[in-house]
Amino acid sequence: MSVELWQRCLVRLEDELPSQQYTMWIRPLQAAVAQEGAELVLFAPNRFIVDWVRDKYLERISELFAELQDGPVPTLTLRVGAARAATPTPAPAAPAPVATAAPVVAAPGQQFASPAAKETGPVAKHRHNLNTSFLFENFVEGKSNRMAAAAAQQVAENPGTHGYNPLLLYGGVGLGKTHLMHAVGNSMLKRNPNAKVVYLHSERFVADMISALRNKTINEFKRFYRSLDALLIDDIQFFAGKEQSQEEFFHTFNALLENGQQIILTCDKFPKEIDGLEERLKSRFGWGLSQPMEPPDLETRVAILKKKAEESRIELPNDAAFFIAQRIRSNVRELEGALKRVIAHVRFTGAALDVALVKEALRDLLAIQARQVSVDNIQRTVAEYYKIKIADLLSPRRSRSVARPRQIAMALSKELTSHSLPEIGDAFGGRDHTTVLHACRKVKELREGSTEIEEDYQNLLRSLTS
Ligand SMILES: Nc1ncnc2c1ncn2[C@@H]1O[C@H](COP(=O)(O)OP(=O)(O)OP(=O)(O)O)[C@@H](O)[C@H]1O
Predict the structure, then answer these.
(1) Distance in Å, CA 174 to ligand 1 centroid
(2) Can you tell me which atom of ligand 1 is nearest the CA of 182?
(3) How many Å apart are CA 316 and CA 353, to the nearest integer?
């Protein structure tokens, strides 16, 4: 009966607690009945978890027991050890008291050893703390992320391989670093359901380490992290300036690498550029494979929108997808946000999804953008970038050093504003609309043929839209 009570309690705790907390502290617990049902023993894999659960969750667990149990509430005991050692008959083979650690049999991400806990219910359902919707299958590849995705696939297939360890994915916000990192973890678990894969944000690592130091459980802390098959740490830029955490992480990192356990890291920039990060860590991070992730190009943005719409079972016409992708270019998270607004609008109004509906759904966003990107602004930015005068852009001068930036500024004006070709021509010293059209075609051709021009164009786009 009491084990059942624990199962019901777990369902409630899973609802109440942030999923990382639940995965880290509650899921490793195994319940066993003792004293003919009068006592419920919760076994934790190590002392660290026992102390933590006692401090943070025991009171709530007791309250839930009182609430969920009709009859007498069993007493609750926390111990280090495995549930199978606590069966009521024969008399408990002296499961280790809290202070004397028994063998560690389960950890977050690991399947429980106890046959009783293997069956059904929330315990069996979730054995790791990965986001199961971040998969390779729903990651859309394009020029900007293909290398990173390929590296991640390699790691998923051969975790711990020298040369791919650590895998470091770096780049701006919302570009799919976390998605790929979880995709590797999910793929590892698919291949080996017993793999111990733990994901955590670097701030969480720091917070846990500080608590472990305060509670004098740093050895358990170390043992736990060093027992993993794969450690996934997000946003390592947060280690900057936290010397003691860097020190501990450095040792954990080395221990895992030495044992061939996989490490995957993400960072918002190339680690060498992070101030406040120790040189030895910076150099360690670069030992394996470092892959940049860039903002996706137009075609990839369209493909991502189409994929996400399909997942939401919404038919997104190409022109509507292009319309969104042309306007939202900074990152995928914003792209997703815009699409969600469009989908909500479709569902709310019941109207057909077309460009007009997209304009209506994203009205505020587009208005903000229109205000931000004006032809004036584009001219100023382009002139600054190429170190020429704005007056040159508007003048009749045809020398290459002026004509090329002018064409680029015109193409950007067409792409970033809603002005017509004649309006753009007017803004560039009263030129004809065919000149603007020619400029747009020329720039497209130049971008395809020259990486330098493509880079210039992307740099300008970024500085105008971010
Ligand atoms: N190529 C892609 N295909 C499909 N979805 C993507 C892709 N890139 C990003 N996403 C989605 O965009 C959202 C943001 O991605 P993610 O959280 O992985 O970004 P991030 O680079 O880790 O950003 P941050 O540094 O802000 O955490 C997620 O919902 C993710 O699924």
Answers:
(1) 5
(2) 18
(3) 7
75 is in an annotated binding site: no
Residues 116 and 143 sit within 8 Å (Cβ to Cβ): no
Domain 373-465 maps to which CATH number in 3.40.50.11740, 1.10.1750.10, 3.40.50.300, 3.40.1050.10? 1.10.1750.10
What average pLDDT score do residues 244-270 get?
A: 88
Q: 463: left (phi > 0), else alpha (psi -120 to 50), else beta?
A: alpha
Residue nearest to atom 5 of ligand 1 (CA): 139
Ligand 1, residues 146, 179, 331, 340: which to mutate, most atoms within 8 A of Cβ?
A: 179
**Site residues for ligand 1, CB cut-off 6 Å:** 134, 138-140, 145, 173-179, 266, 268, 304, 332-333, 336
Instruction: Report the CATH fold assignment for 298-370.
Output: Helicase, Ruva Protein; domain 3 (1.10.8)
Nearest alpha carbon, ligand 1 atom 8: 176
Q: What is the maximal distance between C-alpha atoms in the chain?
A: 98
- Smallest CA-to-CA distance from 177 within 226, 211, 131 is with 131
pLDDT above 90 (res 379): yes
Q: Which residue, by CA, sits nearest to atom 15 of ligand 1?
A: 176
pTM for the model stands at 0.62
142 annotated as ligand-binding: no
101-105, 242-246, 344-348: range with lowest mean pLDDT = 101-105
Q: Which of 175, 298, 301 best tests ligand 1's pocket when mutated (most atoms within 8 Å of CB)?
A: 175
Handedness of CA 88, 94, 96, 97 (dihedral sign): positive
**Distance from C-alpha of 34 to C-alpha of 45, rounded to nearest angstrom:** 18
pLDDT value for 392: 92
Q: Residue 100's pLDDT band (boundaries 50, 70, 90)?
A: very low
CA 171 to ligand 1: nearest atom: 21
In one letter, which amino acid is 433?
A: H
- Say which CATH class 146-293 falls into: alpha beta
**What number does CATH give the domain 2-125?**
3.30.300.180
Going from the Cα of 134 to the center of ligand 1, the distance in angstroms, rounded, reads 9
Please determine, for the modelled complex, whether the ipTM score is greater than 0.90: yes
C-alpha triplet 23, 19, 131: angle, nearest 5°: 90
Indicate the angle between helix axes 363-372 and 318-327, nearest 10 degrees: 40
Query: What distance in Å separates the CA atoms of residue 325 and residue 157, rounded to the nearest whole number?
Result: 33
Q: What is the pLDDT of residues 182-232, one digit of tens each?
A: 999 999 999 998 899 999 898 888 888 888 888 888 888 888 888 889 999
Confidence at residue 33, expressed as pLDDT on a 0 to 100 scale: 84
Structure-token pair, residue 105: 């049999």
